[in-house]
Structures are given as structure tokens and as C-alpha cells.
Amino acid sequence: MNIINIEHIAKIYQVGTEEVHALADVSIRIDKNEYVAIMGPSGSGKSTLMNILGCLDTPTKGLYDFKGQNVSQMNDNELATIRNREIGFVFQTFNLLARSDALHNVELPLIYAGVPTAERRERARSALENVGLADRMRHKPNELSGGQRQRVAVARALVTNPSIILADEPTGNLDTKTGEDIMALFHEINSAGNTIILVTHEEYIAEHAARIIRLRDGLIEKDEIVKKRLIPDVPNHF
């Protein structure tokens, strides 16, 4: 079942008197429970595509259908509703509140959604347990390693039970071993039935996905199934 259907989208930015074509005639379909990596060099359009997929921006032209809803023409409030309910974001820089412990950081999306205190606390605890941080719930970010902070960010992305996880360079600030641990976690999350879209510039990271979409100059250069996919050994948290 298609969860994302993009047809002939383009994104044009006006910079002074010049038009910058960040995306040109891009069409993509992504099914439920897929694990897709988006790759491309600087200036390829992958960040623009990520922003559109994440409902942080809308295309200048074309259709973006998300679970049967045409988000291409939505206003800012409607886009925010889709983001909050349907998309879990994981960023390179973690984006955690420095003065709050891991539990409160994971609770934040549920606070914004108006979820009652007892329910959101239980859901946040469960999310942290699922990423292997049952013993770190009361630790603040400066008391956690880089890998643990990224796990908190992953738990925060999962706590709303989103339709997709959108991860932007999630291993970019991590050493190789810790990055591999995070990729093992993503594999586990995908195996539990979650759809993952991973944006990366690293071939090794992209090869953990089942499919790679390669962009160049705002166009899809190649859309391919990964033949020798990297399957990490993972503990079963889910």
C-alpha cells in the first residue's frame, strides 16, 4: 500500500531576480513498511525533498499524496497537523532540551498533542525501553553519550506512533561504532513494521536500507533495490 505518492513535483526558489530549481519533475512512491535511503551530493536536492516529504515545505508544482491526502496545497496549520500526527523526525544534531531529562524530552510531542500526563509518561517510558534506555530515563543530555542522545531522539520520534520515521543524517555526529549501533536500531524499528526514510550522503549507511533513491541536479538519477543489503545483528526490543 502506498503511504507516499509524489508525482512530477518541482521546487523553485526565488533568490533575488534568479530562479533556483532545487527539484525538477520528481516522482516517487513509497509503500508502508519500506526502508528507503535518499542519497545525493551537495546541491542535488535531497534536503529539499526531505523537507517536502516531512511536510516542512510544499512543492511549487506537482502532487504530494500522503496516505490519501493531498498535502501539496495544505496551509501551514494543516501541514503542522500532519507532521505532529504522522511523522517522526530524527536529526543529526539530536535537538534535545539540555535542562530536561530523557523522559521529558521524549514526552514533548505528546505534551504538544494534549495527551494526559499519566498516558504520555507511560508511552515515553515504553519508547525509551524500546531503544534500550530503560536505565537512563532520568539522565539529562549532558549525562549521556552521543549514541544515547540519538537513541533518545529516536524514542521521541517513535512515541507518537507515526506513519513514517524521517531520519536526516542520523549518524553524522557519531563515531563509526556508535553509528552502526544506531543503524541496527533502525533495522529493528523497520522489522517491527515501521516505514523509514533515511537521508544520507554515506554509501555505507544507505546500504542498510532496502532501496536507494539517488538524486543529482534536482532529478532522480537512479531508484534501485539494494542487492547486498547490510543487515546488522540486533537485540529484540520491539
TrEMBL record:
GO-annotated molecular function: ATP binding; ATP hydrolysis activity; transmembrane transporter activity
Segments forming domain ABC transporter: 4-238
Keyword Transport: yes
Pfam families cross-referenced by the UniProt entry: ABC_tran
Key words, A-Z: ATP-binding, Nucleotide-binding, Transport
GO (cellular component) term, any one: membrane protein complex
InterPro entries: AAA+_ATPase, ABC_transporter-like_ATP-bd, ABC_transporter-like_CS, MacB-like_ATP-bd, P-loop_NTPase
SMART domains xref list: AAA
Record-stated family: Belongs to the ABC transporter superfamily.
UniProt name for this protein: ABC-type antimicrobial peptide transport system, ATPase component
The organism's taxonomic lineage, starting at the top: unclassified sequences, metagenomes, ecological metagenomes
